[in-house]
Amino acid sequence: MASVVQWIQGTRPRTLPNSIAPVVVGAAAAHHIDEFNALYTGLALIVSVAFQIGVNYANDYSDGIRGTDDDRVGPFRLTGSGAAEPSKVRLAAFISLGVGAVAGLVLVALSGFWWLLALGAVCVLGAWFYTGGKRPYGYAGLGEIAVFLFFGPAAVLGTLYVQTGEITGIGIGSSIAMGAISAAVLVANNLRDIPTDAVSGKRTLAVVLGDKDTRRLYLALVAVPFLIALGMVVRVPYALLGFLAAPILLPAVRRVAAGRGGRDLIPVLQFTGIAMLAWAVLVSVGLVLD
């Protein structure tokens, strides 16, 4: 029977900045036009984090029963390690997605933007079929595109729109930044797993591109938020605060650029996630100050 600590590990805490950072910067974009709503932001955060945990448990379950996690280099997995029964991991995924769905329903009801229910449904389906079902899109090299869309435009612009009823240029730029660096986290994860994924038949984008081009893709993606911050300076001079996140990212960039592999790439996910959250907070501070 899995321990409480192992269930917490199963949520993949290192990936949670992916769900927190977009809501932070989306709320700041709403504040920038004097439309910030703390309750709506809190509900959006619950939706985002619950969906993130749900997709992590779903991924644990689906990869585990397929045998993809039988020979892992990366962090602990509940199903693959045999610590938890697959049915219980699947239930944890459904509960997490359910919590997110309920919070989303409350948010939609309060805001009156009922069409957002369709977006929520797409997010739930995207979470499950990433590695679930007969034809998981995560096994077909589409995972990074989905992460970009869900943790970029969907999360950032969804948080902004539900509070303001509009989409701003700052919001669009921020959503691209968040989507790119969120995708970079997955690229780093899949870069580490190229050898085992190739053997198990999991054709991630990293497997398709190969080691060298995957590293180039990671470096390009992590540069995007800083280019966006530079572009924001025209409207929001304090957006330059986002560059203070660069030193946090540097150790990850060095490991990827130096050709490190296996367990040496595990910290890359952590550094990238923390840098993402730092960029979001710093740019959000800039938006508030402006």
Automatic annotation (TrEMBL):
Top-level EC class: transferase
This protein's pathway: Quinol/quinone metabolism; menaquinone biosynthesis; menaquinol from 1,4-dihydroxy-2-naphthoate: step 1/2
EC number(s) on file: 2.5.1.74
InterPro entries: MenA, UbiA_prenyltransferase, UbiA_sf, UBIAD1
One Pfam family hit: UbiA
Keyword match Lipid biosynthesis: no
UniProt cross-references to Gene3D superfamilies, sorted A to Z: UbiA prenyltransferase
Keywords carried by this UniProt record: Cell membrane, Membrane, Menaquinone biosynthesis, Transferase, Transmembrane, Transmembrane helix
Reaction catalysed by this enzyme: an all-trans-polyprenyl diphosphate + 1,4-dihydroxy-2-naphthoate + H(+) = a 2-demethylmenaquinol + CO2 + diphosphate
Compartment(s) of residence: Cell membrane; Membrane
Main localisation: membrane
Bilayer topology: Multi-pass membrane protein
Transmembrane segments: 89-107, 113-130, 137-161, 167-188, 217-234, 269-289
Highest taxon above the source species: Bacteria
Family annotation (NCBIfam families): menA, PRK06080.1-3
Family: Belongs to the MenA family. Type 1 subfamily.
UniProt function note: Conversion of 1,4-dihydroxy-2-naphthoate (DHNA) to demethylmenaquinone (DMK).
PANTHER family the UniProt entry points to: 1,4-DIHYDROXY-2-NAPHTHOATE OCTAPRENYLTRANSFERASE (PTHR13929), UBIA PRENYLTRANSFERASE DOMAIN-CONTAINING PROTEIN 1 (PTHR13929:SF0)
Protein name: 1,4-dihydroxy-2-naphthoate octaprenyltransferase
